[in-house]
Amino acid sequence: MPDETQKKSYRDVFKATSIFGGAQIFLILINIFRAKIIALLLGTVGFGVYNLFNSTILLVNSISNLGLPFSAVRDISYAYGKNDGKTIAKTILSFRRLVWLTGIAGALIMVLFCVPISNWTFHNSDKSLEFALAGSIVFLTAISSGQLSLLRGVRRIADCAKATIFSGICGLLASLPLYWICGIKGIVPSLVIASAATLAVSYFYSKKVAVEKVEMGWQETFNVGKDMVKIGFLVTLAGIITQFAGWLIYIFVSKFGGLEEVGLYAAGWTMTNQYTNIVFSAMGTDYLPRLSALKDDNAKISEAANQQSEIALLIIGPAMILFLSVLPIAIYVLFSAKFLSIIKFVQWMLLGMAFKTVSWTLGFIILGKGDSKMFMLTEVGIKFISLPAYLLGYYYFGLEGIGIAFCAVYVSYLALTALICTKKYGYKFSAEHLKVFFTTILLTLAAFMPLYFWGFPTAYASGFAAFALSAAYSLFELHKRMDLAAIFAKLKSKFLV
């Protein structure tokens, strides 16, 4: 049974996950609505075009931003943890200047290479002007990502959540009419408007962070920022590999299956990763800064990682089993009946989510330690496994093959990160963590197997039974760790009395 100090630590993890997770749920609802509109107005082909544009923009952004939005969280949180106002101010100023430089560089890449980018992506130059316009998206995204990284680094989780919510609302309201008026031609302009909205909102909240005024020349800017750039560069390489791999999959599916198949793949991939992003986004917002502040204490890092993984599994387990159980209905509501062929593809991806949850928890330890070389080797190693697996899976088994490969990849990634963290950083799996992990896997399999082999609606009952057991188990374990009764009593007194 956890003591009071441990209960407080669990509550902090749960609180951070809930705050930012709540924002992600709201953002998901917005994205659901946007995806639904695109699917209805533009069809599977239009949805495929939308995701080809989006994938290419993300790739260029990964190339140009030097990993700064990610690496800066570590440096800012470390300085913030020492409570050194001048160091914090110099770190933030250096980061902001470097972000502007990378944003301009990314925009220039899109403008100068718009013709070959169009040829690589769509096998013709017809979309060159649209890719040139997309240069503004890369610039705006770089600046807004910088503002959100600042909020994460100083642990302004609530403001980060508000920025996420309001930028999503503003972007949706401003861009949605373009799909109705312009059809496929409205895709890039709508992305520009959404990016501008995100920047405006993130800038508003980042201005609330009180920072000392410091004088700093460009030479000192680069001296202060060199560690950010160093680890960020390796994060960038990892990001480039990730985005390039994702882009290649889109191109591969487009070549062998056509744009309609791209739309189906994008729908399944997006809906699975987007909805689980509730937990994974919270890791980047709160968990990474906490690890960065503890980077010299292996025992505390182990404790923090176990607590994070337990809470994440207890939240994501029931959610994924419920998702499995209502999958045909979810696909129909979120997209249309034309997308029902992705059921088995999504089932395999959902099965892999428990393994992804734990592997990500361990992967953040490597980054929090600042071990950039090991982080790079890990990312490159797993991509050498995943990309051939996805391509071969699709070639032989279609979209379901990608789902099977996804599950296998994260089993492999978990084994890899566990080996590194235990041998190199002294990480130890707690007995409670292992119990929660294996219980989650067994309950997920109890839902997956009947639904996969018997299909819908025959196996609905087994799916809902597994969900009921999973929900009851999660509530029991969460109560043991945090005293849910006390939390609910506090909320009741705060809001109802």
Secondary structure: helix percent: over 70%
The count of strands amounts to 0
- The tally of domains stands at 2
Structural classification = mainly alpha
What profile does the largest beta sheet have?
Answer: none
What is the terminal separation in angstroms?
32 Å
Would you give an account of this structure?
The chain is built from 19 helices and no strands. The mean pLDDT is 81. It has 497 residues and is mostly helical. The relative contact order is 0.11. The chain has 2 domains: 20-226, no CATH class; 294-497, no CATH class.
Annotation keywords:
single chain, 497 residues, mainly alpha, 2 domains, 19 helices, 0% strand, globular
Helix-strand layout with pairing:
Elements: H1 4-64, H2 68-82, H3 85-112, H4 114-122, H5 128-133, H6 135-153, H7 157-182, H8 187-206, H9 218-257, H10 259-293, H11 298-325, H12 327-334, H13 343-351, H14 353-368, H15 372-397, H16 399-424, H17 431-454, H18 460-482, H19 484-495
Helix pairs in contact: 1-3, 1-6, 1-7, 1-9, 1-10, 1-11, 2-3, 2-6, 2-9, 2-10, 3-6, 3-9, 6-8, 7-8, 9-10, 9-15, 10-11, 10-13, 10-14, 11-13, 11-14, 11-17, 11-18, 13-16, 13-17, 14-16, 15-16, 17-18, 18-19
What's a quick, concise take on this entry?
This protein has 497 residues and is mostly helical. It has 19 helices and no strands.
